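Onboarding guide, step 5: your first structure request.
Type a short instruction followed by the sequence, for example:

Predict the 3D structure of this protein.
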Amino acid sequence: MKFQRPPLGAALAAAVAFAATCAPAAPLAPARVAELCANADGQAHCGRLIEAEQLKALPNLAVRDGNALRVSLFPAGVREFVDVDTIRGSQTYSLWDYWGPINAVVLFTTNLDRTGYAVLQRATGQLTALPAEPVLAPDRQRLAIADFCAKDCDNDITVWRVTREGVRGESAWKPRETWTDVTVYWKDAATLAIEHTLSDGKTLILERRLADPGWSKFDAR
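The system replies with structure tokens like these:
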């Protein structure tokens, strides 16, 4: 699908109109997510409960119509995500967050027994699937992801570059120890802070700069 760039004046007017009716929503706090999903019937249901809250905060960004989630593109168009049930299980999509600074939507996804995320760039319609929740850097140029779990995870920290053509894997770093309960956030545009629990139960915060040695190219993991 091709997207034609509108005249500058029209694009600016559309952007102002959208900003006036769809202010960026903050991601839900972990405590609120836990509250919403305390009695959820599985991960997909949890995603729908979070989506319902975000749809109220972002009424002009997306709509839910049964099994279909329709997300508006910019400056025009719609991308539809349809939940599918099969004899093996379900594949679902839920609105998770909206990043106003880069005009992107974050989706929570399930595929059979696996969960993930995806970033939809509204200006181009590009969709990038991600293994865990992405965290946007302060300079809006990169994402960081902590993909740690007991099964079917890479158990590493990855950094992704945001481009108009999509979100591209850039670098990765894997700790030597076994980590659980890993949370990553940006201290600044060049430094990650990684909160994690070691096998002995001790919780630590490690700071790691993007320029530090030990990072490998994303494809070389």
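Each response can be followed by summary notes, for example: The CA atoms of residues 118 and 176 lie 28 Å apart.
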